[in-house]
Structure formats: C-alpha cells, structure tokens
Amino acid sequence: MGRTRTTARSGPDIYLGALRDHLSIESKAIETTLSELFVCEQYPGLCRRMEEDLAMSRSHAREITTLLSRHGHPAPVPHETVSSILSTVSGLLHGGEDHDVLKNVLAASGYRAHQIASLRSLILMARQLGFTQDAAVLDCLKDEETAATDALASLMPEITSQYLAASQKATS
Q: DSSP letters of 127-150?
C-alpha cells in the first residue's frame, strides 16, 4: 500500500513554511555569531567580519519577517535577546578557547552555504508563485550572503597565520 497525503498544502503554504524555516536559519546564525564574538578578539579581521555578519543576519531576519507579514503571517516571537544573554554567559564560563577558531570558521562557511541554498530555493518558489517582489528581495539577500562568504574565505590565510602563531606561542 502506498502512502497517501491527507493534508495537501498549497504552493503559497509551502513557500511561507520555507520562509519561516529560513527565518529560523537566520536566527541560528545570529545566536551563533553572538556566542562566538568573544573568541575572535585575537583575530581583528575575523572580529570585524563577524560584526558585519551579525548586522547582516539581523537585517535579513527583519526582511524575512517583513515578507512573512506581507503575506499575512506574522513571524514567531523573536528570542534573540534571551539566547544572546545565555550565549554570552556560556562563552564567559567556557573562556573562549582559541583552539576552536579554525573549526568554527569552517563550520560558519558551511552554514553560510546552507543559507545561500535556502535563499536560492526561496527565490525559485517566489518566482514560480508570481511573488516577484519577494524574489527580488530574496535575490538581494542571497547576493549579500555570497559576498559575505567570499569575504570570509579571503580572511582564511590571515586567520590561519594568526592561529598558527598563537598555537606556537602556547606550546613554547
């Protein structure tokens, strides 16, 4: 016996669900950046990049919230303030070990690829559903994410050099 779907969803419902999912992705990016900012103090270029990424993620979350509202679906209640306080306290308790910097930058690069893929999917859905204004907004967000990815990648030689130098000092 094959499976039958009892709850068929319309294209717009699927799109709005994907928008909410992307808002969750942006919220997680904000939380992660807030929890990792203290680690990058020894890496000025990375710290600047993370601050810019934080501002961009907050802006993107506002844009997605606006798109949801435009379609009559309010965004979930933001929990950034509570989670940022918890992340900051957690970071202070764990001391921000330096050895995680490279691993965290690589994870951030992978997460950003996930964000870009999510935006590409949303753009395709918006275009197919005739939501041209949404598609234009989402395309701008995708371009900003792509530029941020390139900026982070360009910092890798600097971050790696600083990481190795700090590691060599620690073992001396």
A: HHHT-HHHHHHHHHHHHHHHHHHH
